[in-house]
Every structure is written in structure tokens, then in C-alpha cells.
């Protein structure tokens, strides 16, 4: 029987008017949820929370509630996503705005040394095994980013939400948890048998460039807080123009 050591860390972005909108759960199962950044006018200096932060919390808690006791977390992945969709639908009904509060997530649960993982959106799950960096999730907004998102496409945020967000029929479609049941079209779930020496990293996209480009040996050895420290080098051009929120769960297998 394998054993597991778990570390977590969360770090706020470097914009004074934007609260942390990442949220994680690391008891009995593992969930990292990332609130989708709202319109600039929705933020003000000194804010301690936001609708996006609440969407992340509700999403993480709903997904965890479905997965933590499930005998087969892969089979339960759809129920988990449905609970998150309903939780955000109810929140948005009570807190209407120009755009719905939304979040994306990655999740994992271990049963019998097999990891069941699932996700919707652009957060990340990486496996470090025998010196190799293995991506277990895809960033569902990658194709949208290639086109430059709204500015590159010459469309408004409203047009993106109406035509692309949660629309699996659109070539640039991507999923978010915002109360729209079409998000379930973007649910991905699978399993992988774990081995001694494995390290699993679940994170929000605040460290996506770091996970992609940092030396594998560094990713395999550093603690959760140290990973976030090292990721700061990727919070500036050419990688990023600012530091986003960062949340990470590390699972070391022995």
C-alpha cells in the first residue's frame, strides 16, 4: 500500500484592488478552484472577497462533497460538476450582474492507489514521474489564447460569453462553472495508477508557465511554498504581465 504526503499553498495576486479568487480543498479529496476574473468595474481597492471568489469556494466545496465519499470518484465526477453548476446557478440568481460569477476547477481522489482526476476549464494537473513532466489535464482556453482572446478576435466580452463560453459546438469553446449546464460538455475524467516516487501537482493557472518551463527536477523536489516563490520569475514578460492568484496542492507518493 502506498503512502501519501500532501502540501498546499495559496498566494494572492499583485493587484491591490483584486482579492484572492483561488480556493482549495485538501481533505479526503483534492480540489483547486479558480474564480474567473470579473470586469474591471467590479473591483475596488480594499475588497476582501468578490463574486468570483465566492464562485470558486462554492465550486470547490460542491465538487469535494460529491467526491470525498464516492467509491468510484470517476463515476461521481459528473455529479460533482452538476453540484457545482447548481451552486453557482443559485448564487448568480441571488447576486445578478453583467456577467455571472464563474470558476474552473481540477480535482482528484485516491482509491486503492489509483488516482481519479477530473476537471473543467484551464487549471492544471501535472504528474512528475521518473524525471518526466506529464500533463494530465488540458487548458481548455489554450486555443482561445492563441487567437488573442477578445482583443485578438475583435469581439467584446459579452460576445465571448454569448457565443463561445460553455459552447462545445464553437471551435474556440471552453468550459466554466457559472450555472450553465452546458459546462458539463467540457467535463473530463479519467484514472491513473500511482507509483512510488510520483508527485502530483494540482494548481490554478497562476503558475501554468512555471509548470511548463521550470526544470523538472525543481518541480519534483520543492515544497508547495517554494514552488510559488520560484514561480514569481514567470510573473513578468515574456511569460505574463502580472502575478495572478496561485493555489497549489502537491501529493508525494512513497
Commentary on this structure:
The chain has 254 residues and is an alpha+beta fold. Helix content is 28%, strand content 26%. The strands form two sheets. Strands 1-10-9-6-7 form a five-stranded antiparallel beta sheet. A five-stranded antiparallel beta sheet has the order 2-3-4-5-8, covered by helices on one side. A hairpin with a 2-residue loop joins strand 4 (103-111) and strand 5. The radius of gyration is 17 Å and the shape is globular.
Strand order in the sheet with the most strands? 1-10-9-6-7
Number of strands: 10
Specify the structural class. Answer: alpha+beta
User: Largest beta sheet, briefly?
Assistant: 5 strands, antiparallel
Oligomeric state of shown chains: single chain
Number of DSSP helical runs? 8
Helical content band: 25-40%
- State the shape: globular
Amino acid at each position: 500500500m502506498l503512502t501519501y504526503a500532501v502540501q498546499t499553498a495559496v498566494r494572492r495576486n499583485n493587484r491591490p484592488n483584486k482579492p484572492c479568487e483561488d480556493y482549495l480543498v485538501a481533505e479526503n479529496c483534492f480540489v483547486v478552484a479558480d474564480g474567473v476574473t470579473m470586469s474591471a468595474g467590479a473591483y475596488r481597492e480594499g475588497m476582501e472577497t468578490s463574486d468570483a471568489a465566492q464562485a470558486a469556494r462554492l465550486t470547490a466545496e460542491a465538487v469535494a462533497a460529491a467526491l470525498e465519499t464516492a467509491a468510484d470518484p470517476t463515476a461521481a465526477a459528473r455529479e460533482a460538476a452538476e453540484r457545482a453548476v447548481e451552486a453557482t446557478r443559485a448564487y448568480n440568481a441571488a447576486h445578478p450582474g453583467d456577467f455571472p460569477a464563474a470558476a474552473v476547477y481540477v480535482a482528484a481522489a485516491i482509491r486503492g492507489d489509483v488516482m481519479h482526476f477530473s476537471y473543467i476549464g484551464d487549471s492544471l494537473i501535472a504528474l512528475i514521474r521518473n524525471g518526466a513532466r506529464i500533463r494530465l489535464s488540458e487548458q481548455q482556453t489554450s486555443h482561445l489564447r492563441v487567437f488573442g482572446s477578445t482583443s485578438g478576435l475583435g469581439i467584446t466580452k459579452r460576445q465571448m460569453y454569448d457565443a463561445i463560453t460553455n459552447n462545445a459546438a464553437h471551435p474556440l469553446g471552453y468550459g466554466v462553472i457559472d450555472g450553465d449546464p452546458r459546462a458539463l460538455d467540457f467535463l473530463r475524467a479519467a484514472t491513473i495508477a500511482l507509483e512510488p516516487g510520483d508527485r502530483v501537482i494540482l494548481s490554478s493557472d497562476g503558475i501554468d508557465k512555471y509548470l511548463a518551463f521550470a526544470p523538472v527536477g525543481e518541480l519534483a523536489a520543492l515544497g508547495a511554498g517554494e514552488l510559488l516563490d520560484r514561480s514569481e520569475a514567470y510573473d513578468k514578460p515574456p511569460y505574463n504581465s502580472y502575478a495572478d492568484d496561485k493555489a497549489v496542492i502537491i501529493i508525494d507518493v512513497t
